[in-house]
Amino acid sequence: MKPLNHLLTLKDLDKEQILHLLDQAAKIKAAPQDYANALRGKSVVMLFEKPSLRTRVSFDIGLNKMGGHAVYLDQQNGELGARETVKDFGANISCWADGIVARVFKQSTLEQLATGGSIPVINALSDLYHPCQALADFLALQEKLGDPSKVKLAYVGDGNNVTHSLMLLAAQIGAEMVVVCPPGYNVDGQVVVDCQAINARTGGKLTISSELSALNGVDAIYADTWVSMGDSTPLDQIKAVFSSYQINAELMANTGAKFFMHCQPAHREYEVTSEVLDGEQSLILPQAENRMWAQNSVMLELLK
């Protein structure tokens, strides 16, 4: 298996690496006591330009469970690159820490941290990708459905960083992905090109549509907020575009989907009804818990 140096985007990983990370995450989850000292003496700097609940808590507590230490730096320090170059920032952090976890506005910031420093960098969210979320999501699907490469996952809503990472992971392992977005809110064209190239090699399948009929026969339906963090589009305008794409009990029944997924925070009665969000088909809490186990697997792989 090829060594893993950073986790910036799932585009850089192959099927063997992804399945290894998922299987290792499952082992850590099943017996965390066996990994209590796996990262003893390791320190990770967590750089957060954007606010967070699940990402910050799951990385901090997860690293602590493996004997490591997290240092949190929030957006009060200013956007990376403003006080000193990102390259210099990464080089200096590399003098003290064993790894960097960064939640940033721009993917280019992560790339500069990786090239400027000499330690592993983990993408905890950027404008283009959210790889740790996708790993946690497919771990949840693996727990419920078995072989993740046999899963047919659908995403409904605004094409965003989460969508991109789900698409890339599905492509890399040869799974099937259906993406349904309102016209004008689709996924990034280059990511589609990247996924189609990967699918040609792995046998995966990607369907892009604006029609809800494309959801028929999927195993799970995934939703996210209708507007991304920081988007100032008026709510009435958003509701006019997205209201027909709401995930509700009728849609779940009509498509035959077994499970509902959401990366949270969720806006109840907007992209999903409370009935579905709180229902037996909902995987939102296993997804949230699995953020920690998937990230622990990534940190173990990069820092061990």
From TrEMBL:
Protein's GO biological process: citrulline biosynthetic process; L-arginine biosynthetic process via ornithine
Lineage: Bacteria, Pseudomonadati, Pseudomonadota, Gammaproteobacteria, Alteromonadales
Keywords, sorted A to Z: Transferase
Protein name: Ornithine carbamoyltransferase
MF GO annotations: amino acid binding; ornithine carbamoyltransferase activity
Catalytic activity: carbamoyl phosphate + L-ornithine = L-citrulline + phosphate + H(+)
Assigned protein family: Belongs to the aspartate/ornithine carbamoyltransferase superfamily. OTCase family.
Organism name: Corallincola holothuriorum
One Pfam assignment: OTCace
Stored SUPFAM superfamilies: Aspartate/ornithine carbamoyltransferase
Top-level taxon of origin: Bacteria
